Amino acid sequence: VCLSLSLSLCVCVCSECLFFFRVFLPIAMQSHYHTINMESGTRSPAPTTSRARMAWAVAAGTSAFVATTYILSATQAQTALFAPTATRPAVVANQGVARGMPLQTNTQPFAFSGVAMRASQDSVPIASVTNIPHEAERSFGAFAPLAALAASVVGLVLAISNIRQPQRVAMAAITAKDVAALRKQSGAGMMDCKKALQENDGNVEKAADWLRKKGMASAGKKASRIAAEGAVQQYIHMGSRMGVILEVNCETDFVARGDVFKELVADLAMQIAASPTVTAVSVDDVDPEFLAKEREIEMGKEDLKSKPENIREKMVEGRMAKLAKEMALLEQPFVKDTTKSVGELVKEAIAATGENIKVRRFDRFNLGEGLEKRQDDFAAEVAAQTKMAAPPKKEEKKEEPKAEEKPKIAISAKDVSALRKVSGAGMMDCKKALMQNEGDVDKAADWLRKKGLASADKKAGRIAAEGAIGSYVHPGSRLGVLIEVNCETDFVARGDAFKELVADLAMQVAACEAVTVVAPEDVDQEFLAKERAIEMEKEDLKSKPENIREKIVDGRMAKRVNEVALLEQPFIKDTDKTVGEVVKAAIAKIGENIKVRRFVKYNLGEGLEKRNEDFAAEVAAASKA
C-alpha cells in the first residue's frame, strides 16, 4: 500500500507536468493562471483551469493507486506460488481467498491466474489460515479491476474534454494591454478585439488581419445603407498654393462627431492633396468621354499597329483600366500606409464605426493653374520708373505751387494715425488727404476712397497670377468653402492685408446662400435666357405695353443676377459697402491688382436622400432579433 501511494504520487506529479507543458506553457508567462477583467484590469483565479488540473491529477493518481495495488497483489501471489514450501502455503491460501476461490484440500487441484496447480503434501492445514478476513479480501479482489478501469476512463475523458477547449484556457492569456493595442491598431470595439484575440491565440497581428477580413465583409453589407450625415473637410497646403475641400458621408451625426470618423476625413483630404492625378472618387466616376478619347488615342499608337486585333483590344483595355485607377481616389495607395489602398482604409473605418461611409465629392484648387504668368522685365521696369521720375516741364511748375499753397493748417500725427486706421492708406497719402480736406478725417477718408477706386480701375488690366487659396468651414463641419484669390506678386500674397481679405471673402461666400458666381458677367447666359422667357410670360406683365414690359423684365433680371454674384453682395462686416468695393479698397491699399477667380461651396448632404428614423420600430426589431 505504501509503495502504491508513492507511485500514485509520482503519477500525479507527472500528470501535472504533462498538463502544464501541453496547455499552460505557451501562456504561463502572460496569464499566471489568472483571468483578466477587461474593464477594471483586476486579476482573479481561473476556476475552469483549476478544475481541469485537479481532475487530471486526481483521476491519474486514483487510477495509479488502484491499479498498482492490484498489480502488486497479483505479483505477490505469483511469487508465493513458486516460492519454497515453507512460505508458500499461507500466501497461496490468502490469495485464493482474495480471488474469491474456495480453499482446496491437500489432494484437490486449484487454478490461479489460468494455471492449474496441485498443492503439495506438506501444505499448511486449513485451520492455519482461518483468521484471514475472507469477505474484505474477496470484495477488494472483485472491485479492483473495475475501479482501475473506471478511474482511468474518467481521468482520460476529463483531460481530453479540458484540453480540447483552447478558448476557455486561452481566455486567461488575453490581457487588457493586448486588447488596447489591437483597438489602437484596428479601431474596432473592445469585445470585437477580445474575440479576435481569442480566435487567434492572443496574436495581435493575426487578430488584426482577422478583424480586417471581418470588417471588409460587414462593409460590403453596409454599402447599400443611406449615408446623408457626415462632415465637410478642408486642407490647405503650406504656402496656400494648393487647397482641397471634401465631403464624406456617414449614417448618423453621432459617428460624424467621433474621433475615428474625423481622422478618416482629415486623412482623405490630405490624400487628395498628395495625389495630383486624382480627379474622381472611384473608377465608375471617371469621365466616360475622357476615357473614350484616350482609348481612341491608344488604339492609334504605333506600338500596337503590328499586333492582332484581339490582342490590341486586350492591351488597350488594360491600359484604360490602369488609367482609370490612376484617376480614382479609392484605388490610390494610402499615404500613411502604402500596403493598403484608400478603399480598404474606408472599409476599415466602416468596420470600426459600424456605419456605412461614402466619399461623396471633392475639389482641388492649384493656385494660378491655367492663368497667364507675368514675365518680369526688371530693366524695362526700372527704365519706366526713371522716366516717370524725370524733372517736370516748366508749365507744370507754375500750377503746383497754387495747389500746395492752398491749405496751410497744422496736421497732427494723431490725425494721420486716425486716418490710417480708418482707411489703411500710407502715412504720406493720409497726410496729403488731410491737407486737401482742411484736416477733416471723414472727408479725407472719402477723398482717399475715391482716389483708391480710381487707381484700382487702372490696375484692373494687370496680370494677377499669384495669390492664395483660402477656406472656411463653419462650426459643425456641415458647410465649407474653398476660394482662390489672385494678386500680382507672392510678396503681397504673404502680407497680412491680403490674407485677411481672402479669409473675409471665404466667410462671405459661406454667409451668402444664393451666391453661385463671382461677378454678374459669370452668370450662365442660357440660364438668363430661360429666366427671361419665364418673366416675359408672367400674368402681371401681359397687360403692360411692350416697351414697359421689356424694362420691367430687364430690371428683374438685373436683380436676379446681382443676387447670385459675389461682388454685388453687401459686405458682412460692413453692409454699407459691397464686396466689390472691399476688393477695390484692398487694391488701393496694397497697390496691386486683386481678382477673385473662383470658389466652391459644399452644404453637407445637399441632394441626398435623408433617412427617416423610426425608433419604436427599431427597438421592436432589435428586441425580436
Q: How does this structure look, described?
A:
The chain is 56% helix and 13% strand. The chain contains 26 helices and 14 strands. It has a three-stranded antiparallel beta sheet. Strand 3 (109-112) and strand 4 (115-118) form a beta hairpin. Helix 3 (47-81) packs antiparallel against helix 5 (134-163). It starts with a helix and ends with a helix.
Sheet bearing the most strands, described? 3 strands, antiparallel
Q: Output the strand order for the largest sheet.
A: 5-6-9
- Number of continuous helical runs: 26
Distance between the termini: 62 Å
Helix content class: 55-70%
User: What is the percentage of strand-forming residues?
Assistant: 5-15%
Low-confidence stretches: 23-49, 85-134, 163-172, 394-407
Given helix and strand content, the structural type is: alpha+beta
Task: Please compute the radius of gyration using only Cα atoms.
Answer: 48 Å
Silhouette: elongated
Mean pLDDT, all residues:
75
* Number of strand elements: 14
Descriptive key words:
625 residues, alpha+beta, 26 helices, elongated
Topology:
Blueprint: H1 2-24, H2 28-31, E1 34-36, E2 43-45, H3 47-81, H4 88-98, E3 109-112, E4 115-118, H5 134-163, H6 166-170, H7 176-186, H8 190-199, H9 204-222, E5 229-236, E6 242-250, H10 253-256, H11 259-274, H12 288-299, H13 302-305, H14 309-327, E7 333-334, E8 337-341, H15 342-353, E9 358-366, H16 378-388, H17 394-405, H18 413-423, H19 427-436, H20 441-459, E10 466-473, E11 479-487, H21 490-493, H22 496-511, H23 525-536, H24 546-564, E12 570-571, E13 574-578, H25 579-590, E14 595-603, H26 615-624
Antiparallel strand pairs: 1-2, 3-4, 5-6, 6-9, 7-8, 10-11, 11-14, 12-13
